[in-house]
Amino acid sequence: MGFNCGIVGLPNVGKSTLFNALTATANAEAANFPFCTIEPNTGRVSVPDARLAKLAEAAKSASIVPTQLEFVDIAGLVRGASKGEGLGNQFLANIREVEAICHVLRCFEDDNVVHVEASVDPVRDAETVETELMLADLESLEKRSEALIKRARGQDKEAVQQLELVNRCLDLLRDGKPARMLELKDGEGRAFRMLQLLTGKPVLYICNVDEASAADGNEYSAKVAEMAAAQGAGSVVISAAIEAEVSTLDDEEEKREFLESLGLEETGLARVIRAGYDLLGLITYFTAGPKEARAWTIVKGTKAPQAAAVIHKDFERGFIAAETIAYEDYVSLGGEHGAKDAGKMRQEGRDYVVQDGDVMLFRFNV
Fold first, then answer.
1. Separation of alpha carbons 247 and 279, rounded Å
2. 163-187: string of b/e by CB count within 10 Å (b at 16+)?
3. Hey, how many other C-beta atoms are within 10 angstroms of the C-beta on 61?
4. How does residue 90 score in pLDDT terms, banded at 50, 70 and 90?
5. Alpha-carbon span 324 to 361, nearest angstrom
């Protein structure tokens, strides 16, 4: 599993159309009215990685197994969601469950598609959603703060530390800034994640533009990119309409020609995945053999035993060593045996930090 992203935004910005296109399913009914999506639809897509095919060729693998990305299409949000307006409570509950937020913003004009705010302004729309999430976080932290204050008065050291973190988050939110902008001290990462703040999650703004703007964006997407940069968030330009058309094409050559005719080198899905990986600090390592060539997703900085655990917990528990070959060496030298003969296979231990593209074979004993 790669990671899961909740697709959020105001009603009628193209969330469900995008979800259908990205997952090539019709699970989410795309319709021109608010709250079309009620229950969160979940879809998984294979993460495109050209390296897998080359690995499979070198290893003479019978099959290829890419890693996957999960999208969750979450109900549209309106003003007052933090107080339960619209489907607010459900929206907030669903968004707590995802690792990252893909925030779809309408960056196109179309008189035939109703906008809940009656005009197109993606920065305003982003602030509407962000405000509701911040209000929900404020309410959550203020309740938590009351309990922590009582414990801190009783000289509970853990409560004192937690309260200090909560107060810093509250100061930031009251200043109109999302919790993800908080500068964490060493060792605070886990405690911050335990707060489960909605605005603490990484955000990728997806600018849904018209077909003519799919290659270079437009004035709306430019404003979103500026806003994202100021927040330390990511942004990507995509046309849900184009992705919907691409998803109906089965032939890869036909897809390529269609994209080229629009001045595009790749699908929006590929751009979303790349931006998402960068946002979450994710990398890919591989396993390859006669049976299959397979991709595995881990967080950058993960050590070998923990990377092995992604395959099976026993691999971590009984970890001995990781036989490791860099991707370029594996492919250029014709696979494992060629790399080993050339002295390019390394025996790595428990402290080895896995690198993107490593081809690994774990030795373990349980």
1. 25
2. bebbebbbebbeeeebbbebeeeee
3. 21
4. low
5. 7
pLDDT-derived band at 33, boundaries 50, 70, 90: very low
Question: Of the given ranges (87-96, 220-229, 258-267), which has the lowest mean pLDDT?
Answer: 87-96
CB atoms within 10 A of CB 141: 20
The number of beta carbons lying within 10 Å of the beta carbon of residue 109 is 12
Closest-CA residue to 18 (of 256, 146, 205): 205
C-alpha span between 50 and 48 (Å, rounded): 7
On the question of pLDDT at 346 being above 50, the answer is yes
Q: Of 82-96, 132-146, 220-234, 342-356, give the lowest mean pLDDT range.
A: 82-96
Phi, psi (deg, nearest 5) at residue 14: 110, 15
Please state the rounded mean pLDDT for residues 336-361: 96
**Measured distance CA(323)–CA(64) in Å, rounded:** 21
Token pair belonging to 91? 């929206």
Would you give the distance in Å from CA 230 to the centre of its chain? 19
Compute the C-alpha angle 100/216/77, nearest 5°: 35
Q: By the 8 A CB rule, do 179 and 199 touch?
A: yes
- The 3 state secondary structure assigned to 117-143 is CCCCCHHHHHHHHHHHHHHHHHHHHHH
Whole-angstrom distance, CA of residue 244 vs CA of residue 26? 11
Question: What's the CA gap between 3 and 282, in Å, rounded?
Answer: 9
DSSP state of 335: S
Tokens of 182: 């908080």
**Pair 239, 125: CB distance under 8 Å:** no
Eight-class DSSP state of 185: P
Contacts of 36 (CB under 8 A, 6+ apart): 11, 16, 28, 29, 30, 76
- Average pLDDT value for residue range 128-152: 89
Show the DSSP H helices in the chain as ranges.
Answer: 15-23, 50-59, 88-96, 122-153, 157-174, 189-194, 219-231, 240-246, 252-261, 268-280, 304-309, 313-317, 327-332, 336-341
**Average pLDDT of the residues of the chain:** 86
Task: For the chain, count helices (H), then strands (E).
Answer: 14, 12
User: Which helix H or strand E contains 70, and what residues bound it?
Assistant: strand 68-73
